[in-house]
Amino acid sequence: MIKLTVVDRDDTEQEIEIPEGINLNLMEVLKASDYNILATCGGMALCATCHVQVLEGLDNLPEPQDQELDMLDTLPDAGSDSRLACQLRVNEQLEGIKIKIRGDLL
Predict the structure, then answer these.
(1) What's the total number of domains in the chain?
(2) b/e per residue 39-78 (b: at least 16 CB within 10 A)
(3) Residue 36 belongs to a domain with what CATH number?
(4) C-beta separation of 7 from 13 below 8 A
(5) Which residues of 79-103 are buried (b: 16+ CB within 10 A; e: fewer)?
(6) 20 lies in some domain
(7) pLDDT by residue (tens digit) across 13-34?
(8) DSSP 29
(9) Is the pTM of this model over 0.85?
(10) pLDDT value for 106
């Protein structure tokens, strides 16, 4: 199991466990875990509604690709610890990370 901590918009914190090898991205797992994430573009890195802030474990994650960086550049509240959850594949690199959900709600 891969364990990570999610901080919701209201600052409630919860650890979630994800089976290894499920071949999903973090956005899909968060939606399946009933977090309110719009994911308007369906995971194509085109809308940034799955914006998360990585509070712990950023160094363990793969570098963002150009498309993700371009999308994050459009967000006024994005920082160097910002990622799009749709671009993070669920694998052992996510073990122990702590994220805060930041994406907009419409």
Answers:
(1) 1
(2) bebebebebbbbbbbbeebeeebeebeeebbebbeeeeeb
(3) 3.10.20.30
(4) yes
(5) eeebbbbbbbebeeebeebbbbbbb
(6) yes
(7) 999 999 999 999 999 999 999 9
(8) H
(9) yes
(10) 57
